[in-house]
Amino acid sequence: MPDYRLRGAARGEDGEIGAPIVDEVLTAVDAKEAVRLANSRSVTVDDEAVNALWLVDANGTLLWSLRRADRES
User: Which top-rank group of organisms is this from (predicted)?
Assistant: First the structure.
């Protein structure tokens, strides 16, 4: 099964994304399953500064992204 990387960082008011705070490897059957896993990830206290998440495949291609505000609305 392929590996995907879920990354998360703080996005500033100017839209700039800082260095990743979250950097996790997700193993899934395919990209659709990897997106499902990323979307179901719980936000923990350690992630409080993270307000932007994104998922890439092994080639670095962006598959999914989310702003924390989108999840909370």
Answer: Bacteria
**23-65 confidence digits (pLDDT tens):** 999 999 999 999 999 888 766 646 678 888 899 999 999 999 8
CA angle 65, 27, 61 (to 5 degrees): 40
Strand-pair category, 62-67 with 52-56: antiparallel
Residue 9 contacts residue 17 (beta carbons within 8 Å): yes
- Cβ proximity of 47 and 8 under 8 Å: yes
What pLDDT score does 57 carry? 95
Which amino acid, 47?
D
Q: Is the per-residue pLDDT at 69 higher than 80?
A: no
- With CA atoms as reference, report the closest residue to 17 among 59, 60, 49, 62: 49
